[in-house]
Write a structure and sequence with these properties.
Blueprint lengths: L2 H17 L14 E2 H10 L6 H10 L5 E4 L2 E4 L20 E6 H10 L9 E3 L3 H9 L4 E6 L1 H6 L4 E3 L5 E3 L7 E2 L1
Antiparallel strand pairs: 1-3, 2-3, 4-6, 5-8, 6-9, 7-8
Helix pairs in contact: 1-3
Length: 178
Protein backbone atom coordinates (compact mmCIF):
# COMPACT_ATOMS: atom_id res chain seq x y z
CA UNK A 1 0.00 0.00 0.00
CA UNK A 2 1.35 3.44 -0.81
CA UNK A 3 1.96 5.96 1.96
CA UNK A 4 -0.86 8.32 0.86
CA UNK A 5 -3.43 5.53 1.16
CA UNK A 6 -2.11 4.54 4.60
CA UNK A 7 -2.35 8.15 5.83
CA UNK A 8 -5.86 8.49 4.41
CA UNK A 9 -6.98 5.31 6.19
CA UNK A 10 -5.33 6.41 9.45
CA UNK A 11 -7.12 9.77 9.36
CA UNK A 12 -10.40 8.02 8.60
CA UNK A 13 -9.87 5.71 11.58
CA UNK A 14 -9.02 8.64 13.86
CA UNK A 15 -12.19 10.47 12.88
CA UNK A 16 -14.45 7.47 13.42
CA UNK A 17 -12.76 5.63 16.30
CA UNK A 18 -11.91 8.76 18.33
CA UNK A 19 -14.41 11.45 17.46
CA UNK A 20 -17.40 10.67 15.23
CA UNK A 21 -18.34 6.95 15.14
CA UNK A 22 -22.02 7.84 14.78
CA UNK A 23 -21.27 9.63 11.49
CA UNK A 24 -20.98 6.23 9.79
CA UNK A 25 -23.32 4.35 12.14
CA UNK A 26 -20.47 2.73 14.05
CA UNK A 27 -20.97 1.69 17.67
CA UNK A 28 -18.09 1.74 20.15
CA UNK A 29 -18.34 -0.30 23.34
CA UNK A 30 -17.66 1.47 26.68
CA UNK A 31 -13.91 0.87 26.28
CA UNK A 32 -13.80 2.29 22.74
CA UNK A 33 -13.71 -1.03 20.85
CA UNK A 34 -15.55 -1.54 17.56
CA UNK A 35 -16.10 -4.77 15.70
CA UNK A 36 -13.79 -4.86 12.66
CA UNK A 37 -16.54 -6.30 10.43
CA UNK A 38 -18.89 -3.49 11.50
CA UNK A 39 -16.21 -0.87 10.81
CA UNK A 40 -15.41 -2.28 7.35
CA UNK A 41 -19.10 -2.53 6.46
CA UNK A 42 -19.90 0.98 7.74
CA UNK A 43 -16.91 2.49 5.94
CA UNK A 44 -17.89 0.82 2.65
CA UNK A 45 -21.51 1.93 3.03
CA UNK A 46 -20.27 5.52 3.43
CA UNK A 47 -18.00 5.51 0.39
CA UNK A 48 -14.69 4.56 1.99
CA UNK A 49 -14.10 0.90 1.21
CA UNK A 50 -11.07 -0.72 2.81
CA UNK A 51 -9.99 -4.28 3.40
CA UNK A 52 -9.06 -6.13 6.56
CA UNK A 53 -5.52 -6.41 5.18
CA UNK A 54 -5.30 -2.63 4.70
CA UNK A 55 -6.64 -2.09 8.21
CA UNK A 56 -4.08 -4.48 9.70
CA UNK A 57 -1.30 -2.81 7.72
CA UNK A 58 -2.22 0.67 8.96
CA UNK A 59 -2.44 -0.52 12.58
CA UNK A 60 0.96 -2.23 12.26
CA UNK A 61 2.86 0.62 10.56
CA UNK A 62 1.26 3.71 12.11
CA UNK A 63 4.23 5.67 13.43
CA UNK A 64 2.29 6.89 16.45
CA UNK A 65 0.73 3.48 17.22
CA UNK A 66 -2.70 5.12 17.50
CA UNK A 67 -4.74 1.93 17.09
CA UNK A 68 -4.84 -1.57 18.46
CA UNK A 69 -6.42 -4.75 17.17
CA UNK A 70 -7.57 -7.53 19.47
CA UNK A 71 -9.07 -10.45 17.60
CA UNK A 72 -12.02 -9.07 15.67
CA UNK A 73 -12.04 -5.71 17.46
CA UNK A 74 -10.21 -2.42 16.94
CA UNK A 75 -9.88 0.80 18.94
CA UNK A 76 -7.92 4.01 19.15
CA UNK A 77 -5.53 3.88 22.11
CA UNK A 78 -6.13 7.50 23.23
CA UNK A 79 -7.31 10.91 22.04
CA UNK A 80 -11.05 10.34 22.15
CA UNK A 81 -13.57 13.15 22.27
CA UNK A 82 -16.45 10.65 22.59
CA UNK A 83 -17.18 9.03 25.94
CA UNK A 84 -15.05 5.93 26.47
CA UNK A 85 -13.17 4.44 29.40
CA UNK A 86 -9.87 2.94 28.29
CA UNK A 87 -9.40 1.39 31.75
CA UNK A 88 -5.75 2.36 31.90
CA UNK A 89 -4.22 1.83 35.34
CA UNK A 90 -2.86 4.74 37.37
CA UNK A 91 0.90 4.74 36.75
CA UNK A 92 3.70 6.62 38.48
CA UNK A 93 5.13 9.08 35.95
CA UNK A 94 8.76 10.06 35.46
CA UNK A 95 9.82 13.26 37.22
CA UNK A 96 9.40 15.29 34.05
CA UNK A 97 7.02 15.06 31.13
CA UNK A 98 6.60 17.47 28.23
CA UNK A 99 3.84 19.16 26.28
CA UNK A 100 4.25 20.54 22.78
CA UNK A 101 2.26 23.61 21.79
CA UNK A 102 2.67 26.84 19.81
CA UNK A 103 3.67 30.31 20.99
CA UNK A 104 0.17 31.81 20.74
CA UNK A 105 -1.09 29.28 23.34
CA UNK A 106 1.70 29.60 25.91
CA UNK A 107 0.39 32.63 27.82
CA UNK A 108 -3.04 31.03 28.40
CA UNK A 109 -1.50 27.68 29.33
CA UNK A 110 0.88 29.21 31.87
CA UNK A 111 -2.06 31.17 33.32
CA UNK A 112 -4.77 28.46 33.30
CA UNK A 113 -2.78 25.23 33.08
CA UNK A 114 -3.21 22.43 30.57
CA UNK A 115 -6.83 21.45 30.05
CA UNK A 116 -8.15 18.51 28.03
CA UNK A 117 -10.22 20.83 25.82
CA UNK A 118 -12.42 18.50 23.72
CA UNK A 119 -10.60 15.34 24.78
CA UNK A 120 -10.79 13.10 27.81
CA UNK A 121 -7.31 13.94 29.08
CA UNK A 122 -4.30 16.16 28.61
CA UNK A 123 -1.68 14.45 26.44
CA UNK A 124 1.93 14.57 27.59
CA UNK A 125 5.10 13.30 25.96
CA UNK A 126 7.90 11.35 27.62
CA UNK A 127 10.63 13.37 25.88
CA UNK A 128 11.24 16.83 24.45
CA UNK A 129 11.61 15.68 20.85
CA UNK A 130 8.20 14.01 20.78
CA UNK A 131 6.64 17.11 22.35
CA UNK A 132 8.40 19.30 19.77
CA UNK A 133 6.95 17.21 16.92
CA UNK A 134 3.47 17.47 18.47
CA UNK A 135 3.75 21.25 18.75
CA UNK A 136 5.13 21.55 15.21
CA UNK A 137 1.86 20.24 13.75
CA UNK A 138 0.31 23.66 14.39
CA UNK A 139 3.24 26.01 13.84
CA UNK A 140 6.60 26.80 15.41
CA UNK A 141 6.74 24.55 18.47
CA UNK A 142 7.22 25.50 22.09
CA UNK A 143 7.95 22.70 24.56
CA UNK A 144 6.62 23.08 28.09
CA UNK A 145 8.08 21.06 30.96
CA UNK A 146 5.64 19.37 33.34
CA UNK A 147 6.75 18.59 36.90
CA UNK A 148 4.97 15.21 36.77
CA UNK A 149 6.75 13.73 39.79
CA UNK A 150 5.65 16.67 41.95
CA UNK A 151 2.13 16.43 40.58
CA UNK A 152 1.92 12.72 41.44
CA UNK A 153 3.32 13.38 44.93
CA UNK A 154 0.56 15.98 45.36
CA UNK A 155 -2.12 13.43 44.47
CA UNK A 156 -2.61 13.89 40.72
CA UNK A 157 -3.08 10.69 38.75
CA UNK A 158 -1.34 9.72 35.53
CA UNK A 159 -2.02 6.97 33.05
CA UNK A 160 -0.01 5.89 30.05
CA UNK A 161 -1.57 4.65 26.82
CA UNK A 162 -0.34 1.66 24.85
CA UNK A 163 1.59 3.98 22.52
CA UNK A 164 3.44 5.79 25.32
CA UNK A 165 1.34 8.95 25.55
CA UNK A 166 0.99 10.05 29.17
CA UNK A 167 -2.49 11.20 30.21
CA UNK A 168 -3.57 13.50 33.04
CA UNK A 169 -6.94 15.06 33.81
CA UNK A 170 -5.37 18.53 33.91
CA UNK A 171 -2.00 20.12 34.62
CA UNK A 172 -2.28 23.13 36.95
CA UNK A 173 -0.01 26.06 36.04
CA UNK A 174 2.20 25.68 39.11
CA UNK A 175 3.63 22.46 37.58
CA UNK A 176 4.51 24.05 34.22
CA UNK A 177 7.55 25.89 32.91
CA UNK A 178 8.70 26.95 29.48
Amino acid sequence: MDERRAVKISKYLAKHLRHRPERIGLTLDPEGWAEVAELLSAAAAHGFALTRAELEHVVAVNDKKRYELSGDRIRAVQGHSVPVSLNLPVTAPPDLLYHGTVRRSVEAILRDGLLPMGRHAVHLSPDRETARRVGARRGVPVVLTVQAGRMAADGHEFRVSANGVWLADTVPPRYLSE
